[in-house]
């Protein structure tokens, strides 16, 4: 159950990162470079958090070999 919840959190963070990246793209396209930049920063931070959640969940819920 912990693995499902952890992976779900990771996927949710990836979804938020995708939304932030879409907002960044819209900001760059309309000439608002500041909005494009900061939404890109937010997307990168969310992607790092998603990677941490996914990898951490995988490592901490795997069966130990000992």
How is the secondary structure organized here?
Elements: H1 2-29, H2 33-61
Q: Would you write up a description of this structure?
A:
It is built from 2 helices and no strands. The protein is mostly helical. Helix 1 runs antiparallel to helix 2 (33-61). The two termini are 22 Å apart. The model has no long low-confidence stretch (mean pLDDT 95).
Mean pLDDT, to the nearest integer, reads 95
Number of strands: 0
Please mark out the parts with pLDDT under 50 across 5 or more consecutive residues, or reply none: none
Please provide the ordered H/E string of secondary-structure elements: HH
Overall form: elongated
Q: How many H/I helical runs?
A: 2
Cα end-to-end separation: 22 Å
Helix content: over 70%
> What is the C-alpha radius of gyration, as a whole number of Å?
16 Å
SS-derived structural category = mainly alpha
Largest sheet: none
Protein traits:
single chain, 66 residues, elongated
Characterize this entry briefly.
This protein has 66 residues and is mostly helical. 86% of the residues lie in helices and 0% in strands.
């Amino acid at each position: 159950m912990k693995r499902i919840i952890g992976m779900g959190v990771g996927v949710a963070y990836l979804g938020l990162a995708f939304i932030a990246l879409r907002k960044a793209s819209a900001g760059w396209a309309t000439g608002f470079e500041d909005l494009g930049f900061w939404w890109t920063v937010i997307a990168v931070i969310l992607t790092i958090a998603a990677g941490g959640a996914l990898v951490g969940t995988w490592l901490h819920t795997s069966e130990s070999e000992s």
